[in-house]
């Protein structure tokens, strides 16, 4: 019996790595998202898992650009922190090592004066 091995150029040992949010991280993000939905501020979200970054985008309406992007960049872990909140214009609103503390910048926007 003869076995033929395909050329090595056709073999890919591992699929490309992707960065993704873990269950605990998604729980924290979706909890905040649910509070904003209940307040009528946010209506849609999107999740992107890319090679270098995982992004949770928040939309006011489906057809718009995202209001905020919550990003996870593990390469920034040792420097400024791997979590960041990016605004509509691309400005980084907050960056840090702990997701809950980074998301506080958005929670402040949820607090309103009660009449």
Write the layout of secondary structure elements.
Blueprint: H1 23-38, E1 44-49, E2 54-59, E3 68-72, E4 83-86, E5 92-96, H2 99-110
Antiparallel strand pairs: 1-2, 2-3, 3-4, 4-5
Helix pairs in contact: 1-2
What does this 3D model show about the protein?
This protein has one domain (16-110). The chain contains two helices and five strands; from the N terminus they run αβββββα. The radius of gyration is 19 Å and the shape is globular. Helix 1 (23-38) packs parallel to helix 2. The protein has helices at residues 23-38, 99-110; strands spanning 44-49, 54-59, 68-72, 83-86, 92-96. With 115 residues, it is α+β, with helices and mostly antiparallel strands. 24% of the residues lie in helices and 23% in strands.
Number of helices: 2
Number of domains: 1
Describe the strand arrangement of the main beta sheet, using strand numbers: 1-2-3-4-5
Q: Tell me the helix content.
A: 10-25%
The coarse overall form would be globular
- Spatial separation of the terminal alpha carbons: 84 Å
Q: If you average the pLDDT, what whole number results?
A: 81
